[in-house]
Amino acid sequence: MARIAFLGLGVMGGPMAGHLAAAGHDVTVYNRTAARSLAWVSEHGHQASPTPAEAVADAEFVMMCVGNDDDVREVALGKSGAIGAMADGAVLVDHTTASADVARELAAACAERGLGFVDGPISGGQAGAETGQLTVMCGADDPAVFESARGVIVSYAKECRRLGDAGAGQTTKMVNQICIAGMVQALSEAISFAQKAGLDVDEVVQTIGKGAAASWQMDNRAATMAAGEFEHGFAVEWMRKDLAICLAEAERLGARLPVTALVDQFYKQIIERGGSRWDTSSLVQLLQQP
After folding, report:
1. CATH number of 171-288, picked from 3.20.20.190, 1.10.1040.10, 3.40.50.720, 1.20.140.150
2. How many CA atoms lie within 13 Å of 71's alpha carbon, on the beta-carbon side?
3. What is d(CA 142, CA 117) in angstroms, rounded to the nearest whole number?
4. Is 166 helix (H, G, I), strand (E, B) or coil?
5. Pick the catalytic residue: 79, 158, 173, 210?
6. What are the domain boundaries of the chain?
7. Does the active-site annotation cover 268?
8. pTM score
9. Is 233 a residue whose pLDDT tops 90?
10. Is residue 283 classed as helix, strand or coil in its secondary structure?
11. Total Cβ atoms within 10 A of residue 242
C-alpha cells in the first residue's frame, strides 16, 4: 500500500480518491474549497491538508484532478504548490484534461527535482469515477515511472495505458473528445430525424444498436435525448473547454478538424440558451427546438 496525496475533489476526483482509500492506501486530500476536503474525510477517513505542499510532503504518489491549465499550474507550481514540496523519487500523476504543453511543462519541472511524472487524463464521466471504471490515457517519459503509477491508478480504472512520452496522454484525450463530439452530433441528427418521421426512437435504437451504428452514446444517451432530458452527465461548458484544447492543438499540428469546429459552435449556441451545465447530448435540442 502506498502513501498518496490526492489534489482536487470534484465530481471525478472525490470518488477516485475514495477508491484509493477503499483499496487500503494511506490518502491525504486537498481541495481549494476546504469544506469539500473535510466532507471527504468525514465519509472516508484518512486526512486532509490546507495546501498542496502540506498534502504531498510524505506522499509516494501525488494524483491531481483539477479544472484547466491555469488550475494545474497553480496547484502544481504556484505558491504552496505540490512539485516544490514532493519527496525525492515521488511521482506526480495529473488526471486533469489539459493541454499537452502544460503536461510537458510539468514533466520538465518534475525532472529538475528528480520526480516522476505521468499525464493521465480520464474518460468515463462521473459514473465511471464512482464505479471505478475509468479509462486513463497516459503519457510518461519513463516507462518504469508509468508502471509504478499504474499500480495505483488501477484502483479506479478499467483501462490504463501508456501512449508515449509526456503529453501523449493529453493528445489521446483530445482524440477521444473529437470522436465524442462527432458522434453526439450524428446521434442528435438521427434522433431528430426519427422523431420527425414518426418512428418510435426506443424501438429504432434497440434495432440499429445491434448493428454497425452502435455506440456508447446511443446505448446511454438516446433515450434521454429523445425525451429532452439533459440535467445529468458531462457538462457542455466542460466539453467546450476540451474542444478549445483540441482545436488549438490541431492548429499547432496543421491538422484539420472541420466537424469538431462546427460542433464546438453548436455547443456555443447551447450555452447561449442557458445550457452550460446540460449534458453534452443536449446538441439534439438545437434540432428539436430550432
Report:
1. 1.10.1040.10
2. 15
3. 8
4. coil
5. 173
6. 3-165, 171-288
7. no
8. 0.94
9. no
10. helix
11. 23
